[in-house]
Amino acid sequence: MIESVPNVSEGQRAAVVTELAGALQGVAGLMLLDHSADPSHNRSVFTMAGDPAVVSEALFRLFEIALARIDLRTHRGVHPRIGAVDVVPFVPLGGATMTECIDLSRQFGAAVAERFGLPVFLYEQSATRPERRRLEQIRHHQFEGLAERLAQPEWMPDFGPPVPHPAAGATVVGARMPLIAFNVQLESADVSAARTIARSIRESSGGLPCVKALGLTLAHRGVAQVSMNLTDYTRTSIQQVFDAIERQADALGLRIRDSELIGLIPAAALEGTSAAQLKLRDFSTSQILEERIAQRMAGR
């Protein structure tokens, strides 16, 4: 069994998000474990699991609908993106290995490029160059700067044409270990404070290991957010991240309103903490990866 967590650049049109989820639910043998959409990010995240052939089929259906419905020339959102289907990670679960996920990501990336005429970059464990391991490096200039970046010889895509798809941009595909998408909302709309906190905690600025962070505005909630990816919870736990944000917020005279998980979290990542300690909003045990898989396998 493998997991895939595609991120799609649509979080405002509920009908499109529903259509994307419906296409995945229609794939025999696939477990759609979770999906969520955020209008300020203008982004949806789908978590699915199954055998490699089933997951690949589901992802092709996702691409077909996303490319028909999304035009990045008119897309606006606070989250960085270069593609209609922005990123497609493969994650080994029961019985699968990282090597198998790397091989699958490369096969899938080549097939996506050929079928849809999309430039495809390989990242994380699948990266062919050191500078492409980190997603934020590939996505640095976003969709608007993609044509200029692709024109540089060192940024030729791994697969597909060296020019962006007019409406769908490019796609990033790779293999990685489980990642925790964790957001913390402040009791303030001051995005400069959120950016200051993000800069203080993220690894690339000298902060916590395996933490990626941005300060964003959530216009639909009227708050500022520290939006994070925790790429190895065994090195930096979710509680350590929360505590660091709380300290930084306190130094700025601010408080944490609440936090949220986007997608699912491995059970081991919650050891030593609780939803109450993390101020997790609307948390349930069905957001635990292993619990959700068990529910789906039991037909619930």
What's the quick description here?
The chain has 300 residues and is α+β, with helices and mostly antiparallel strands. It is 31% helix and 23% strand. The strands form 2 sheets. Strands 1, 2, 3, 4, 5, 6 and 7 form a 7-stranded mixed sheet that branches. A 4-stranded antiparallel sheet has the order 9-10-8-11.
SSE inventory with pairings:
Layout: E1 2-4, E2 7-8, H1 14-25, E3 31-38, E4 43-50, H2 52-69, E5 85-92, H3 98-116, E6 120-124, H4 135-138, H5 146-150, E7 171-175, E8 180-186, H6 191-201, E9 211-218, E10 223-230, H7 238-251, E11 256-262, H8 289-297
Parallel strand pairs: 5-7, 6-7
Antiparallel strand pairs: 1-4, 1-5, 2-4, 2-5, 3-4, 8-10, 8-11, 9-10
Helix pairs in contact: 1-2, 2-3, 6-7
How would you characterize the overall build of this protein?
The chain is α+β, with helices and mostly antiparallel strands and 300 residues long. It has two domains: 2-175, Formiminotransferase, N-terminal subdomain (Formiminotransferase-cyclodeaminase, Chain B, domain 1); 180-297, Formiminotransferase, C-terminal subdomain (Alpha-Beta Plaits), CATH 3.30.70. Helix content is 31%, strand content 23%. The chain contains eight helices and eleven strands. The strands form two sheets. Strands 1, 2, 3, 4, 5, 6 and 7 form a seven-stranded mixed β-sheet that branches. Strand 9 and strand 10 form a beta hairpin. Helix 1 (14-25) packs antiparallel against helix 2 (52-69) and helix 2 (52-69) runs parallel beside helix 3 (98-116). The two termini are 18 Å apart.
